[in-house]
Amino acid sequence: MADKPAIVLIHGFWGGAAHWAKVITELHRRGFGSLHAVENPLTSLAEDAERTRKMVRQIDGPVLLVGHSYGGAVITEAGDLPNVTGLVYIAAFAPDAGESPGQISQEKPPAAFENIAPDSDGYLWIKQDTFHESFAQDPSEGEALVMAVTQKAPLRSTFGDNVTAPAWRAKPTWYQVSTADRMIHPDNERRMAERMNPRRTIELDASHASLASQPGPVTDLIEEAAGATGS
Asked: Are 136 and 146 in contact, with CB atoms under 8 Å apart?
């Protein structure tokens, strides 16, 4: 429908654009016709933000950015474009100026921090045999296995990349906290949400993979944000 904004979905570490599959189908069912999912290289915040900006610049009209996990840092950095009308954070990092995802995680380490391991090329992986318990406790074992095998590892250095000018200081925001998150401490999510003063914060009894395990409530929040910013 013409009064609905374009939705641009941004994945995080250890994921890809397909992590949004259930949310995409639900948004489509609800009449959102302009749907886009960025496939980020996860090589640096600057490169990932620029990849997102390139997609947004191809879209005429208002755009709602939705970021999961590290994707929240990406929309924080890339959300300054004039046609971006709002930001939705799904169990996501929302750093302030001079903050990085790594710094936030070190302040209050998540429960599964020890299950992240580097390889010899400088990429970080979640150990496959702990992926289900670490990232995606509530999706099925089969879904978690696919996520584990197809995970997209970030360069270790990306964890330390700082946000420069956070878009959430200028754009309306919405935030979803996962209360059983083992990849970002839930209290870190609450703290980041509170300082943004979002239009709405919701808490779901969900793992880090809330976009896969609870696509209905996640889509509800996106739809609310779209209704408030789209026209």
From this structure: no
